[in-house]
């Protein structure tokens, strides 16, 4: 009966309150009782056991109206529908639109892509801006074909107010995912958003990517975030070389002739001190790689590394583990070494005492941009003298293993039938073009190298449930996000694997029934996953799931930003992200009292094609909140855009405050 006493006297419910408990209540709190008398309890404390809670709630219902919590229901429908503090509170859903922020463009009426979707009035700009029409050619054509409007019109085919629904119903602000003025990768940004300081817990993105792809990591293994990429082959024709490098040279030198561009390409091949066979033309060999990727990964898996690049035996044998992720991505790890029976005394005797140990204190091979040379793996600098002599030797040995692994992967991939098939396809296109035939097909990049990036071992991260008191699931086909969530103790939803291809006749922009983690992803599959996790039923507005925090992540907007594809960014925001928002806030969406937050992990402006340090728009609302009765949970912002949210009530804050803010939002609504 202690619970009734506390509620009747307006004490906060300690297991869900936004503020600390009073001293009296703390003495009877669930956490304190479990701490002091844990061995005596069988299961949960009384007020958390359904068979005890029901009669207690019925007695609470008999109290005068003045003593009832303001959010009480009128009748008891079942054991799940208790009064007062919910035993299973409505969930918190965090909708992360990867890379959503952007810049204003003259072609959009000096608006950002988000403002076009929100229907913001076009504006005049006193400063003459450099036009970037190449970004918007496809989007402009789409407008003309679907209503005959222009991108500079207020209402275009991309207009969809559903994306701003959370902003209209809740509170908005500006969010620095990590800290102001710092651009960051998706891994560090998500760590910060989940409440883990990257400076304390970040080891490298390789482990997240590998775990997300499904690799099993041993304590001594090191993992990498890896891409299938295209390394220039010395047998390439000038036509192929031009195809591979036009992105890098024509964009920089639009006034130069073809021959002048080719001369620059050849000059880079033979640059002093560089290997002309290690020139990376495309870091991402192919976005549409779902058929070839799994085949190549299976082919490379368990490849042995037991020598250096000159085939001098190493004292230990290591194996390459590869698992396909999405698009051009894969998870890759190198196993801890075992003694090499073929090893004889040589220059590597100094590494014998390492016993096959590997280090993640190394650089990668990824040049980070197209049209650059493959980097050589080396130990990181020890300028601050924080590493011991043994640690530095381990890093030096690991660099040898990685260099050989990169080399043997290239050798094996170059000879694979898939790449032979692609070469034949390219030669056929080249010959047809030489004959003057009109060819609509495109060249296919050769997937002959894998890039190594973000070396990391499996590190320790406190469980999300321990850190925040929430049971969390994550819905993210993108491996690095799924793996990071799993490291934090979130249950990662597993999507069924598929090898089907996109049916462009049925829907040219959606891979029906498949959550691919790219632009073509079917977001309705993710919505179905959310309903399954929360056990939502159409005619029952309450969740029966133990999960009370769900991360729903979409990647297509970020991919469009990296590819500098304005049409894809506008389409994904207006047709797919808006669909998610509309479904979650519909009558058959999230239960009343749920909290829905929408944000990004970073901005990926189209004109840059990469992450930047700009803050991202943030909005959060409580589902079912009446703006007239509870105006404190609504600040009057009408659009979810980079500019509108600057007037929001949440102000500007850092990623580490996101989860506490969502919890306080829910508690404020219920109490």
Please write out the topology.
Layout: H1 2-8, H2 23-27, H3 30-37, H4 50-61, E1 92-97, E2 99-101, H5 113-118, H6 137-145, H7 165-169, E3 171-176, H8 186-193, H9 198-201, H10 205-213, E4 222-231, H11 238-249, H12 258-269, E5 279-282, H13 292-300, E6 303-307, E7 313-324, E8 329-334, E9 338-339, E10 372-373, H14 389-414, H15 417-434, E11 449-456, H16 464-468, E12 472-475, H17 479-487, E13 491-492, H18 523-534, E14 549-554, H19 556-562, H20 566-584, E15 595-599, E16 616-622, E17 651-654, H21 658-670
Parallel strand pairs: 1-14, 1-15, 3-17, 12-13, 12-14
Antiparallel strand pairs: 3-16, 4-5, 4-8, 4-11, 5-10, 6-7, 7-8, 7-9, 15-16
Protein name: Metalloenzyme superfamily/2,3-bisphosphoglycerate-independent phosphoglycerate mutase, putative
Catalytic activity: (2R)-2-phosphoglycerate = (2R)-3-phosphoglycerate
Function: Catalyzes the interconversion of 2-phosphoglycerate and 3-phosphoglycerate.
Radius of gyration, in Å, reads 28 Å
Q: Structural class from helices and strands? A: alpha/beta
Helix content: 25-40%
Number of structural domains: 3
Stretches with pLDDT under 50, minimum 5 residues: 1-6, 11-49, 65-86, 244-254
Shape: globular
| Mean pLDDT figure | 79
Annotation, overall tally of beta strands:
17
